[in-house]
Specification:
Rossmann fold, 4-stranded parallel β-sheet, 198 residues, globular, 51% helix, 4 strands
Length: 198
């Protein structure tokens, strides 16, 4: 069901439709997100707010909406796709980084709050994944630096010790682990080829 999760009331509309069709949400994978790049002195208030709305407020609204039915049932799984940017600072992505740090804090606080209810709450923190979001990062690097697309992609691959982009399936495997392992909660699982060791 397509929706703009940053629009007022859209989260409730999505959940209402899902509940009417299939019943209460048992597994929530909050994966909507976007990034932006600019030196901090050039980040506009609008871009700052856009990053917070999509990468932090939308997941918060989804968690808030999903939790009552999950805790009432005594079982639920919440997985937020964050980023390794939730764990370190990197130049030119301050708004994105702040939002992702915030969403990891939200995951940790929520997991502590519901730990005894049968509901787990985790984050998966990918590095650069071979997706259209990374393609947009490549184009931004090309525009800002004059590098070729191949050089820009190679620079992103080199940020990860495995020397390549992470695959979508590798991220999905980590999400599945969060769903199947009942003892795993409050974690930010890095899927970044070893870039951030924690």
């Amino acid at each position: 069901m397509p929706a703009d999760l940053t629009a007022d009331g859209s989260v409730d509309e999505v959940f209402d439709a899902i509940e009417q069709a299939w019943g209460p949400v048992e597994i929530l994978a909050a994966n909507a997100g976007a990034g932006s790049s600019a030196p901090i002195v050039r980040i506009t208030d609008g871009e700052w707010q856009r990053m917070l709305d999509l990468n932090l407020t939308a997941p918060f609204r989804c968690l808030r909406r999903a939790l009552p039915a999950m805790t009432a049932a005594g079982w639920g799984r919440i997985v937020v796709v964050a980023s390794v940017a939730a764990k370190r600072g990197e130049p030119y992505i301050a708004a994105y980084t702040a939002a992702k740090h915030g969403v990891l804090g939200l995951v940790r606080a929520t997991s502590a709050e519901v730990a005894r209810t049968g509901v787990t709450v985790n984050a998966v923190c990918p590095g650069y994944v071979d997706t259209p979001l990374t393609d947009a990062s490549v184009l931004a690097i090309v525009a800002a630096t004059g590098r070729t697309p191949e050089q820009a992609r190679a620079a992103l691959e080199a940020k990860q010790p495995i020397g390549r982009l992470v695959t979508v399936d590798e991220v999905a495997d980590a999400v599945e682990l969060c769903v199947t392992n009942a003892a795993l909660t409050g974690q930010g699982i890095n899927v970044d080829g070893g870039a951030v060791q924690s």
